Amino acid sequence: MKTECEYLIVGGGMAADAAWTTLRRKAPDASLIMLSNEKYPPYQRPPLSKKLWTEQRMEDIWCPSGASPNLRLTCSAISLDTSRHELTTVTGEVYGYGKLLIATGGTPLHLSDLQAAEDPGVLYFRGVEDYVSLRRLAQNAHSIALIGGGFIGAELSAALTSLGKEVSLIMPESSILGHMLPPELATRVTQVYQEHGVKICSASRATSVKQTSKGFEVHLHSGSSISADVVVAGLGIRPNTSLAESAGLGVANGIIVDSHLRTSHADVYAAGDVAAFPWGGSGPTVRVEHEDNALSQGRLAARNMLGENQVYSHLPFFYSDLFQFGFEAIGRLDASLPVFSDWQVPGEEGVFYYLDQNRVVGILNWNVWDGIPEARRILQSGQIINDPNSLKGRIQNS
After folding, report:
1. What are phi and psi of 272, to 5 degrees?
2. Cα 29 from Cα 34, distance rounded (Å)
3. Does residue 310 lie in a domain region?
4. Which among 117, 264, 319, 333 could bridge 180 via Cys, Cβ 3.0 to 4.6 Å?
5. What's the total number of domains in the chain?
6. Is the pTM of the predicted complex or chain greater than 0.85?
7. Measured torsion, CA atoms of residues 62, 63, 67, 71, in degrees rounded to the nearest 10
8. Of 212, 233, 254, which marks where a domain is finished?
9. Residue 89: its pLDDT value, please?
10. CA-to-CA distance for 329 and 334, rounded, in angstroms?
């Protein structure tokens, strides 16, 4: 038996929820089904490594679509036939659709993906189940080893240290977020982490994790090891493109979409972490794994499924909280680029402009808030910057 609907959403994350909410608002009488392979309804992902550890309540993270009877949880799509407009799940259920949105996100990379030998008992942090598990494990743990110096590792290090845990952060970079922060700032952040008691294992790579009678041993490529009660890895994700691949849709580090978020099939769209889209509507193809992009793409994909034919020209921003530091950022943050530093309070507050061929391509507002609209205007202008000092004072703290 086949279930028919006008609009079908595959995925249960923030992009899927944003699309659902938009479709419900703009086409309240349309038939709409969402399929999610999670056992939890859609939720906000950023608090899992940030505010849920300090101030936010679990009941506040759930998204509106979770209350719908047309949300099918623990439902994994396995194949897609675009010629027949049919999707089949792993249990053999078939869904017919008019328009389809793929918002399947990504799967955490494992140590084995990075050629590490063993990883028994490692918690790969990605979703709400991982948060619940780590919260439970942390209650009785004294020491926690975090593998990966990206956002997950940096944010969880701060959160768990604030709970009085002994934290070791193992990362390949020489400093925290060293791939994106200007060297002077990355060094300052790393020093602050050390001052808070985080043991920084920089320029280090985990080669194996072995369970012992007392907990775990994380072996490093240097030959040394770290003992811990709990081991958590945040190594990035691999976009979930298998459904698109089953249908022969264009895939390259994500599902390739055009400026309208349409895939290589006219009735199939993609949004969120899994979508590889033209930056700014006409720029190079990129894939962005942040909240603002997921929400904005989900909304626009829904509108285009309804026939509005709008271009996704939005420049998404992202943010993080790291002990006493916080930031908002937009564009291309590459530490290898020339950076103009506009410190407002030296070492504490400032705006950093990333330049490529004398144009601003990325902006980092460090402990400077509400500057994203102006930052977006600067990026969109494409202005040639002959004298970087002309940027001084363009963005001020609110």
Report:
1. 85, -155
2. 15
3. no
4. 333
5. 3
6. yes
7. -110
8. 233
9. 97
10. 12
